[in-house]
Amino acid sequence: MAAVQGHLSNGADGPDGTxxxxxxxxxxxxxxxxxxxxxxxxPEVELDPTPPPRRLAPYSYAxxxxxxxxxxxxxxxxxxxxxxxxxxxxDSWRGTFRLVTLVHADLEPEIAADPLLPEVCWSWLTGAxxxxxxxxxxxxxxxxxxxxxxxxxxxxxxxxxxIEIRASWTPAAHPAPExxxxxxxxxxxxxxxxxxxxxxxxxxxHLAAWCDLLCQIAGLPPAGAAEAxxxxxxxxxxxxxx
Length: 242
Fold this sequence. Notes:
Layout: E1 2-3, H1 27-34, E2 40-41, E3 45-50, E4 59-68, E5 75-90, E6 95-107, H2 109-112, H3 117-131, E7 136-148, E8 160-171, H4 203-217
Antiparallel strand pairs: 1-2, 3-4, 4-5, 5-6, 6-8, 7-8
Helix pairs in contact: 3-4
Protein name: DUF3000 domain-containing protein
Region (Disordered): 1-29, 170-199
InterPro entries: DUF3000
């Protein structure tokens, strides 16, 4: 497996254009972004930072990924993962962090015809998080199956079907240890010199689980999928003509 390091940069911008590592960026968000650089991914997964949306939260960071096959020209799946942070918290999130994703891939016709495919695809997301022991809340999303049939000058093309997963969830923060003395503690703060930050989710674990989802939708089941009871698609026969 290859590390994400080298594919990532602390280029996430805050509401005033500050970088993720800048002094004006909340320490919790800086740590959450920095933790992503240590994730090790399968060699088939190519990760790169991409400009994040600026209106979803005060602070955001985004990654895009492509899962390739035996040939670099064979793209089996692709997606985008966005880390959002609002230090003041968000009612619908039930927390200060939120993860948002869009994942899609082309499927073989016989696989795409399975009436249970949307339910199975949603279970890949929740199963990937649970297989890595990642607590989360407020999951929401859609699974869309779109088929294309070609006619006229394009009639020689084989019918194609694309599956798309749009989802978001709230990653649970690291539990805070019992305080030595009574007193309020801000959930999004980070203790100076502490080995484990407070109020910061395991973003590295969630990124790894997201890569597991990408591999499953691409037909490359991640290690341990069988033990976790996760159903995956068979590998593609090859890229379809476009």
